[in-house]
Design brief:
By secondary structure, the chain is α/β, with parallel strands linked by helices. Among the domains are: 359-543, Rossmann fold (3-Layer(aba) Sandwich), CATH 3.40.50.1700; 622-734, Sandwich (Immunoglobulin-like). The chain is 28% helix and 18% strand. Helix 2 runs antiparallel to helix 13 (307-317), helix 6 (115-130) runs parallel beside helix 7 and helix 6 runs antiparallel to helix 15. The structure holds alpha-D-glucopyranose. Alpha-D-glucopyranose is lined by residues 94, 138, 192, 271-272, 476.
C-alpha cells in the first residue's frame, strides 16, 4: 500500500522532473526555436518539402487541420528526428461534438443535463480523433449565450453559468481521459473563447461585448474558472473586445485572473488571427505592436497569424520584450507537450486502422440524440405514436444527412447519417408511411408541392413534419436577426394541418427559434438541436415511445426576437412585472396618457418567454412535494435540501430535477433565481423517491462591488422542480 505521503512525493518528483526537463530544453534552445514553439500553422494533408524544411528549422510548434496519419507522421518526423531540438509538434483540430461519429451539437447535448453523457461523447470524439493524429481539440466552448441571434449559441452549453460549468468540466475530463493526459487516447482540451464572446452586442458574431465587472465575474468567467479547476490543458482567447479591450491583449484577464488568481499552468492560444485583428480593433498600429501587446497579456501561442514569428526577435533586441517572457510562454507550451506524453509517443500508431462509427459509438450517439431532444408540447397525449399508425413524413429536414449533423462537423461523413427517412428504410421499415418532403431545404420557397403534402397527411393517421435550419444557418459568423422558421416552413405546417389530421412538429435547428406562430398548427412538438449522426433513429425511438423524452431547455425560448436578451437568471429590477400584464388587445382606444402598468414588460409580447430555461415534458408526469431543509445553514457550511419526487404518469421516465436559489437581500442585486443543482432521476410509473441536493456556503458566493468574492448572511429562497418556474419552495438563512 503506497502511503499518501509517498504518492504526493512521487507526483511532486514527477512534476519537478518535468519542469527540470523543460528548463534544460529551454536552456539549449535558440531564440528562433523558442519563438517557433509559439507559432501554430494551418496545413492540409499534403505537407510539401518547403514546410518540412521550416519544421526542421524548429519554426513550427503546432499544426492545425492535418487529419491524416501519414501526413502527421511525416511532419512529426521532421520535427522529432530532423530538427536540432527534437521537440514534437502538437496537432490540433476542432473536434467539437464528434470527429467522425457526431453526437448532437453541444447545445443539444446540454439539453440532456447529463454530465456523464457529455463526458462519454467527448471520450468517443477523442478516441476517433486520436486515431488520425489529432492530439488537441478546441473544445469545450464555455461561452454563456443569452442571445439566439448569435449563431455560435449552437456550439456551447447554453445560458446558465452553473450548467455550462458542470458540462464543460465533464467534457474536459472526457477529452483528457479523466486527467491522464498522457493516455493513449487522450487529447488536450481547450476552454474557449476566453472571454465574453457570447455577449456580442446584437448577437452579431465577433462584435463588441460590454460586460460590466460584476456580470463578468459572477456569470461569464465562472465556467472558465471551473475548467481550470478541472485541469484543462489549454485556453483560447476570444475575438471580441470587452468594453474596448480585445481578449488577446487583455492582461488583466489572461495574466492577473487566469494565471495569478486561478493558477492556470497550461498554455494560452489565440483564436484564428485574433491577435492580428487587434489592428482592426484599433488597439495595435501594426503587427509588431500586436506581438508586444499579446506577449504582455500572456498569450503563449499564436494561431496562424505570424506576429510573434516575425516581430518578437526585434522586440527582444530592442529590449521591449524580455527573453524571460518568451521562456515563460515556451515553458507553458512544453509543459503540456510533456504532460501529453508527446515526447515519448509523438507518432500516430498506424498499425491498426482507425475505428470510426463503431457499434458502441453509434449506440452512444443515438442515446445522446434521444436524451438531447426536448418535448415542448403534447396535446391530448398524441405522443407516443403507435407503430401501427400510418404516418405522413413531411418536410425538408426529414432526410437531410448533412444538415442533421449541425455546425462544426469538419470530419463527420454525411453518408453515415441516419436520417428519419433512413430509419424508416431500416429498423422502422415496418411503419406504414408515406414521405413527401414538400421543400428541398429549409430556405426553399417553392410551395408547389404543398398540396401533395396536405393530401399525404389527409390519407394518413398523423403527419410528422420535420422542419428547422440547414447546418450553415448557425455556427461561426452565422447570426440571424429573425428567428422564425426560415423560408415557407411555417406555411407548410399550416398547409399540412389543414388536412385535419394530428400534426407532430419535429424541429432540428442550431438555436432556439421563435416558433410561437407555429404552435397552433402542431399538436405535439419535439425540438432537437441538430441531433447528429443517429438523430433519425433517436427521433423515432422517441416518437414511438421506445424512449421517453427527458431533455430540458438549456436556453430560454423567446416569443419574439425583440424580447432578446431574455433569460431566467435576471435581476429583479425595481419594477418587476406582475404575472398578469396589460397586453395589446386590452389597451382601451384613445387611452390617452393612461399608464399601462409601470413595470418591466412588452405591450405586444408580455413579460415571459415562450418556454423557460429548464423546461421539457415527458410521456410521464412528475410531482414534487414535501420540501425539507433546515431553517439555517448548518455550522459545517453545507445544507441538505430534500424533496419527494413522484412519477404520476403511467410509463417509466427520467426527470431532470432542478434546484434554484435566490439570495434575497445582498450588497448588490442578485438574480431572481440561479440553478445550483440538477440530477436525472429515473422512476417507474407510480414510483416515489426522495431526492436531495447538497448546497455549500461557497456555492452561494458572488463578487461584490469591491470585487471581493464572498457569501453574505441573510435569507435565501430555494425552489425544487422540473424547470426554472419551479413552484415547490422553501427558505433558509445564513446567520450573521
Ligand atoms: C475559429 C473559431 C475557433 C476555432 C478556431 C480554429 O475561428 O473561432 O473556435 O477553434 O478558429 O478553427
Amino acid at each position: 500500500m503506497v502511503s499518501l505521503v509517498a504518492l504526493v512525493a512521487a507526483c511532486t518528483v514527477q512534476i519537478d522532473e518535468t519542469e527540470q526537463k523543460i528548463n534544460d530544453l529551454i536552456a539549449r534552445m535558440t531564440l528562433e526555436e523558442k519563438i517557433g514553439q509559439m507559432f501554430q500553422v494551418s496545413l492540409d494533408n499534403a505537407p510539401n518539402e518547403q514546410i518540412l524544411q521550416v519544421v526542421r528549422e524548429g519554426k513550427i510548434g503546432s499544426v492545425i487541420n492535418v487529419v491524416n496519419p501519414e501526413a502527421a507522421n511525416m511532419l512529426q518526423k521532421a520535427a522529432v528526428e530532423e530538427s536540432r531540438t527534437g521537440i514534437p509538434i502538437i496537432f490540433g483540430r476542432d473536434v467539437i461534438h464528434g470527429f467522425k461519429t457526431l453526437a448532437p451539437i453541444p447545445l443539444g447535448q446540454a439539453a440532456s443535463f447529463d454530465p456523464q453523457l457529455i463526458h462519454d461523447c467527448a471520450r468517443m470524439s477523442a478516441v476517433e480523433a486520436r486515431s488520425v493524429g489529432v492530439r488537441w481539440t478546441f473544445a469545450p466552448m464555455l461561452d454563456i449565450a443569452r442571445d439566439a441571434r448569435w449563431g455560435r449559441i449552437a456550439e456551447g452549453f447554453g445560458e446558465d453559468p452553473y450548467l455550462v460549468a458542470q458540462l464543460g468540466a465533464a467534457s474536459i475530463q472526457g477529452f483528457q481521459s479523466d486527467g491522464r493526459l498522457s493516455d493513449e487516447q487522450a487529447i488536450a482540451a481547450c476552454a474557449k473563447h476566453f472571454a465574453g464572446y457570447g455577449a456580442a452586442e446584437g448577437g452579431r458574431d465577433y462584435n463588441s461585448a460590454n460586460i460590466p465587472p460584476l456580470l463578468w465575474r459572477n456569470v461569464y468567467l465562472k465556467p472558465f474558472e471551473q475548467a481550470v479547476d478541472a485541469g484543462v490543458a489549454t485556453v483560447m482567447t476570444s475575438f471580441n473586445d470587452n468594453d474596448g479591450i480585445p481578449s488577446s491583449g487583455n492582461e488583466d484577464l489572461v495574466k492577473n485572473t487566469l494565471r495569478d488568481e486561478w493558477h492556470f499552468n497550461g498554455f494560452v492560444v489565440s483564436d484564428w488571427t485574433s491577435m492580428a485583428e487587434m489592428i482592426a480593433h484599433g488597439v495595435a498600429k501594426d503587427m509588431k505592436d500586436v506581438a508586444l501587446i499579446s506577449i504582455k497579456a500572456g498569450v503563449d501561442m499564436e494561431m496562424v497569424s505570424p506576429a510573434y514569428l516575425i516581430n518578437l526577435p526585434e522586440l527582444i533586441k530592442e529590449g521591449k520584450v524580455p527573453e524571460k517572457a518568451i521562456d515563460n510562454a515556451v515553458r507553458n507550451i512544453l509543459r503540456i507537450k510533456c504532460r501529453m506524453g508527446l515526447f515519448e509517443k509523438p507518432y500516430v500508431n498506424t498499425s491498426t486502422p482507425p475505428a470510426f462509427y463503431t457499434e458502441e459509438s453509434l449506440k452512444l450517439a443515438r442515446r445522446a440524440a434521444a436524451e438531447s431532444a426536448i418535448l415542448l408540447k403534447n396535446e391530448n397525449h398524441l405522443l407516443p405514436l403507435s407503430e401501427t399508425q400510418k404516418i405522413a413524413v413531411i418536410g425538408p429536414m426529414a432526410d437531410a444527412p448533412h444538415d442533421q449533423l449541425g455546425t462544426w462537423c469538419f470530419d463527420g461523413d454525411k453518408t453515415h447519417t441516419l436520417t428519419p427517412v433512413g430509419a424508416l428504410k431500416g429498423e422502422y421499415r415496418h411503419i406504414n408511411h408515406v414521405y413527401e418532403p414538400a421543400l428541398a431545404y429549409s430556405r426553399d420557397k417553392n410551395t408547389s408541392r404543398f398540396d401533395k403534402a396536405r393530401r399525404a397527411a389527409a390519407a394518413a393517421d398523423v403527419a410528422v413534419v420535420f422542419v428547422g435550419e440547414e447546418a450553415i444557418l448557425s455556427g461561426e459568423a452565422h447570426s440571424l436577426s429573425n428567428l422564425n422558421l426560415i423560408g415557407v416552413q411555417s406555411e407548410l405546417i399550416k398547409a399540412v394541418k389543414s388536412a385535419g389530421k394530428p400534426v407532430v412538429l419535429v424541429v432540428m435547428a442550431g438555436r432556439p427559434l421563435t416558433i410561437e406562430r407555429d404552435l397552433p398548427y402542431a399538436d405535439a412538438v419535439l425540438y432537437n438541436f441538430h441531433p447528429g449522426t443517429m438523430g433519425g433513429a433517436a427521433i423515432f425511438d422517441l416518437l414511438f415511445g421506445r424512449e421517453n423524452p427527458s431533455g430540458k431547455l438549456p436556453v430560454t425560448f423567446v416569443r419574439e426576437v425583440g424580447q432578446i436578451p431574455l433569460y431566467y437568471n435576471h435581476n429583479n429590477t425595481g419594477r418587476p412585472a406582475p404575472d398578469k400584464v396589460t397586453t395589446l388587445d386590452e389597451i382601451p382606444l384613445e387611452a390617452g396618457q393612461t399608464s399601462l402598468g409601470n413595470t418591466s414588460f412588452y405591450l405586444d409580447s408580455g413579460r415571459d418567454p415562450l418556454f423557460p430555461f429548464g423546461y421539457g415534458l415527458s410521456y410521464s408526469s412528475f410531482e414534487y412535494s414535501n420540501l425539507i431543509l433546515p431553517d439555517q445553514m448548518p455550522a459545517n457550511g453545507t445544507i441538505t435540501i430534500k424533496a419527494t419526487l413522484k412519477n404520476t404518469g403511467n410509463v417509466a421516465g427520467t426527470e431532470v430535477a432542478q434546484l434554484y436559489v435566490r439570495d434575497m437581500v445582498a450588497s448588490v442585486a442578485r438574480p431572481v433565481k440561479e440553478l445550483k443543482g440538477f440530477q436525472r432521476v429515473w422512476l417507474k410509473a407510480g414510483e416515489t423517491k426522495e431526492i436531495s441536493f447538497e448546497l455549500g456556503i461557497s456555492d452561494l458566493a458572488f463578487f461584490d462591488q469591491d470585487m471581493i468574492r464572498k457569501t453574505e448572511p441573510g435569507d435565501f429562497t430555494v425552489w425544487v422542480g422540473g424547470d426554472s418556474n419551479a413552484q415547490l419552495k422553501g427558505v433558509f438563512s445564513i446567520p450573521e
